[in-house]
Design goal:
Length: 353
């Protein structure tokens, strides 16, 4: 993606490996849109922390970061007598950093099973994995842009752009490619509490001058009832064999509302998000995050010129903070993939090939 870092317009993915020093580098997503800063992870442990803290986020981007993180650990411990144990620990720590997005496991397993396992092979494989995700983002756009006709009102949730998918994006990729072809339409952007990924969506749509309006998550039903939403496209963090999806909390609410209002509801995702080992959404582990993320907000202070955390509630208030929910396949109109727009019966066979 073209992004201005320190006043210089550069072409950067969401996460990359700096071959001069073995550092995993990433765009710090907690600072978008007010600051564009590169975050450095010199060791695999710092890569784990960056994933946990959502400095990098979005299922495929954290999958790529985890693959780089394991390659980093292989390089760090290559000459150690406890290499096997250390790599097992690194694998487990990276996997536990964010449990719901299957991209993490898919990326880690790819590195763990390389033959022969060498630091160089691990790094090359991590690079290939990241590149494949980015290429698939572009293909998702090619495939999905056909769904977008002029004057539509499209609703999206969370952030599914280039920063979430190494490059190009999943659900935002068709939106951007349709716009670049000259189609004109409007996008409703869910704010996506509690982490406000909608800020990144609004920022990314602004880069292309795409018409958009940010709405509170709870306003989506109102706009649907007014006939103002024609199409919903969002991403996925895990797609199971029967076509159920785990995605950002609030996705299920949207799917039920969309079904009530007969609004087509599509999910867009790359190969790394498909989970061959899980049959249905009931078996997906849902990440529970720190309730501080709901009790407090992280925002940019113009006075201090940096991110600041402020409290919304007193300490004794009880919260629950599930990061994802599961939407059953019967509520999903279609699956926008690099291999075409599929129905749930085509998923498993398509991704096996
Ligand atoms: C990310 C999230 C996004 C999908 C994006 O969650 O739910 O909707 O990952 O879809 P978080 P895709 O912000 O908690 O990482 O991954 O297909 O781009």
């Amino acid at each position: 993606m073209k992004i201005e870092i320190d006043g210089i317009l550069t072409d950067r993915p969401a996460v990359w490996w700096d071959s001069t020093n073995g550092v995993v580098r990433m765009i710090d997503q907690t600072k978008i849109p007010f600051q564009i800063v590169v975050h450095n992870c010199p060791t695999y442990r710092e890569t784990v922390q960056a994933i946990e803290k959502m400095i990098i986020r979005g299922a495929p981007s954290i999958g790529a970061a985890a693959a780089y993180g394991l390659a980093q650990a292989i390089q760090e411990f290559w000459n150690s007598e406890e290499f096997e144990d250390q790599i097992r620990t690194a694998y487990n720590e990276l996997l536990a950093a964010r449990p719901t997005a299957v991209d993490l496991k898919n990326g880690l397993d790819l590195i763990r099973t390389i033959e022969p396992l060498t630091p160089e092979n691990a790094l090359n494989q991590a690079q290939l994995f990241a590149n494949q995700i980015a290429e698939e983002g572009w293909k998702i756009g090619q495939v999905g842009k056909e769904l977008i006709t002029p004057n539509l009102n499209i609703l999206t949730h969370c952030h599914t752009g280039a920063l979430a998918l190494v490059d190009y994006g999943s659900a935002l990729s068709p939106i951007i490619q349709a716009w670049e072809e000259g189609k004109r339409f409007h996008v409703y952007v869910d704010e996506t509490r509690p982490r406000f990924q909608g800020r990144m969506t609004a920022w990314e749509l602004s880069q292309y001058n795409i018409n958009h309006t940010v709405i509170c998550d709870s306003a989506s039903g109102f706009f649907m009832s007014q006939g103002k939403v024609d199409l919903i496209i969002l991403g996925a963090d895990r797609v199971t064999r029967n076509g159920d999806i785990a995605n950002k909390i609030g996705t299920y609410n949207l799917a039920v509302l969309a079904s009530h209002h007969n609004i087509p509801f599509y999910t867009a995702f790359p190969t790394s998000t498909f989970d061959f080992s899980t049959l249905t959404g009931k078996d997906i582990v849902i990440e529970q995050r720190d309730t501080k993320e709901v009790k407090q907000v992280l925002g940019y202070s113009h006075t201090l010129n940096k991110n600041e955390i402020v409290s919304l509630y007193t300490d004794e208030v009880v919260f629950s903070n599930p990061a994802f929910d599961v939407t059953p396949s019967e509520l999903i109109t279609g699956y926008i993939t690099p291999h075409g727009i599929l129905n749930k019966f085509q998923l498993e066979e398509t991704f096996s090939n």
